C-alpha cells in the first residue's frame, strides 16, 4: 500500500519586463493512481509594475503607495475517490469534488510594506464538471 501520492508539476512562466504569464499543470499520472487531490490547472497573468497609475487610485487600506500592479488568475482543482471506475457511492471515501475560481488581485507596495488585495469568484461541486474533466484527461 502506498503512503503518499506523487504529483507531477509543470510550471511555465513567460516574462517580459515585470509582467508575466504563468501556466501550472499538476497531475498524479506518474503514480497511475487517482486518489484525493489528483490534478490542478492554473493560468495567471500579472501586469507590469506601475508608479502613480490608475491602480494606485483604487481605494484600499494603506493606499498611499508609490508602486502597484494587478493580475488575473483562473484555477481548477480536482479531487477524486480512491477508484474512479466505481459507479456507486463509496462509503468512507471522498466523492468527486472540484473547485473552479477566477481571482482578481492588486499588489501595492512601497519601501516599508507589501500588500495584496484579492477578489475571488468561483464554483464548487457538480457545476465544475470535475468528474468529466478528470476522466477526459
From TrEMBL:
Domain of life: Bacteria
Pfam families in UniProt: LpxR (PF09982)
InterPro entries listed in its UniProt record: LpxR (IPR018707), Put_OMP_sf (IPR037107)
Name used for this protein in its record: DUF2219 family protein
Native source organism of the sequence: Poseidonibacter ostreae
